[in-house]
Design goal:
Length: 468
């Protein structure tokens, strides 16, 4: 992300593969001149004179030298003059047919004309640097693209429209005013002038402290709704793990047979469970085996279990518990660092469990269901959501925190405000109170990018796709 920001950049902005339309985006000081090297508007008007924010029909030509003029495609072209563009610079978008060959040919022609291929996230990075978006809004662009549920999309859109930024500003701006008063008192300490009463200073710090607490209150749920959770379906062979995966997906994704050990690898699918994105992994049956292929499947299953946030421990309720069942229940129910759901499957058959199975703590639950008939699947979905999402998280007066970076910055802000309140309580020197205020203000500024470093920017934009 250290490429010169005064270059003219280009990139394909639509996903790889074939499609009806493929879009190439060009941004920079020479965007119009670069695009004009291969664009001929059907109206006869030069591209440099074309009306901004208006679609123009055009032919695209590949000019490999001064004499050649090879037709490439017909396209719609739109010029967006800065600063009224996504990046704040002059932007040209070429809407071609969605052939990968056409898009590659056009990009190559643009590069020969003086553009360079954009880095991942460089368009959005320029939008941030040019003041079109703040840093929280820039992150919301990627969250919008990656949203897996209606809830995560709604949250991303709220942040893209500035909901979080407004909440941060509503805390930060009063703190800046408090700091100005405290620093004025330091500068004129010999005049014995009180620029702000101690009660007003304490009240301002308390108000900021309470607002930051409200922002942090549902940060765990916010991150879950954005990032999702990983769930591993585990159990001995032939208890119905693959049938459960198929039932939740409502499709035959995994092969199901009466033969134990059919699943040899970890199958993974993403689904929406009551608004929570869940990466569901069906693992091989866990048992001792001399088959090297099955041993490798068990090894991969163990790795998936270690990476999981939630264990779905499947037990065949139509058969007495065997030694493998008891060993797995003892092992997995003891994993206190993970959420666990014991699933008593095959309830469409007579129950033959000889021992009751109970949830050992609030991080676990027991669900009875039949993967064959679907009975109990709704309760399973409810329980998955209940383990990760607090029932009243929707009732909030502030934006939802969805990024670990935001959460860490807010925690630093909260710590600084707590220290500031302690300093005020003991009538500490103004310099100490000012230091706490500056740390709180800086923590808030990191979220929206008022205070940023190249390291922070690189971490944020490296995950973007090229063309955005």
């Amino acid at each position: 992300m250290s490429s010169p920001l005064n270059d003219t950049i280009c990139a394909v902005a639509t996903p790889p593969g074939e499609g009806g339309v493929g879009i190439i985006r060009i941004s920079g000081e020479k965007a119009v001149d670069v695009a004009a090297s291969l664009v001929a508007l059907k109206s006869g008007v030069f591209l440099a004179s074309a009306a901004s924010h208006t679609l123009h029909q055009a032919d695209l030509f590949d000019r490999t030298d001064a004499r050649s003029r090879t037709p490439v495609d017909e396209a719609l072209v739109v010029v967006m003059r800065g600063p009224r563009s996504y990046t704040g610079e002059d932007v040209v978008e070429l809407q071609c047919h969605g052939s990968s060959l056409i898009l590659q040919t056009v990009c190559a022609a643009l590069i020969r004309a003086g553009a360079r291929l954009a880095d991942p996230g460089e368009f959005t990075k320029r939008a941030f640097l040019n003041g079109r978006l703040d840093l929280a809004q820039a992150e919301a662009v990627l969250d919008t693209i990656r949203a897996k549920t209606a809830g995560s999309l709604r949250i991303a859109q709220e942040q893209l429209r500035g909901a979080l930024s407004k909440d941060i500003a509503s805390v930060r701006e009063p703190l800046i005013r408090l700091l100005a008063h405290v620093e004025a008192g330091i500068d004129f300490v010999e005049e014995d002038i009180s620029f702000i009463p101690i009660t007003e200073l304490a009240a301002g710090l308390h108000q900021a402290h309470d607002m930051v607490l409200r922002l942090l209150a549902h940060s765990r749920e916010g991150r879950i709704l954005r990032e999702g959770v990983t769930a591993a379906i585990v159990g001995r062979p032939n208890v119905g793990k693959s049938s459960l995966l198929n039932a939740l997906l409502r499709m035959d994704r995994a092969i199901v047979t009466p033969i134990p050990g059919t699943t040899r690898d970890v199958l993974e699918e993403v689904l929406n469970v009551r608004g929570v994105p869940v990466r569901l992994r069906d693992t091989a049956g866990l048992r001792d085996s001399i088959d090297p292929v099955e041993q490798e499947g068990v090894r991969r299953s163990q790795a998936a279990i270690e990476q999981a946030d939630l264990l779905l421990i499947v037990v065949d309720a139509s058969a007495p518990l065997c030694s493998d069942d008891r060993r797995l229940l003892d092992e997995f129910l003891g994993k206190t660092d993970k959420k666990r759901l014991v699933i008593l499957n095959k309830t469409d058959l007579p129950c033959r469990l000889d021992d009751p199975i109970a949830a050992p703590d609030e991080r676990s639950a027991v669900v009875r269901l039949s993967a064959k008939t679907g009975e109990g699947l709704d309760e399973l979905r409810d329980q998955i959501r209940a383990l990760f999402i607090h029932p009243d998280f929707e009732v909030r007066e502030t934006a939802l925190i969805t990024h670990l970076r935001h959460q860490a910055a807010l925690q630093r802000t909260l710590d600084a405000l707590t220290a500031g309140l302690a300093s005020v309580a003991v009538s500490a020197a103004g310099e100490l109170i000012a230091m706490d205020l500056r740390m709180a203000i800086d923590g808030l500024g990191e979220i929206t990018g008022v205070i940023s470093t190249d390291d922070i920017l690189d971490r944020i934009f490296k995950d973007f796709c090229i063309g955005k």
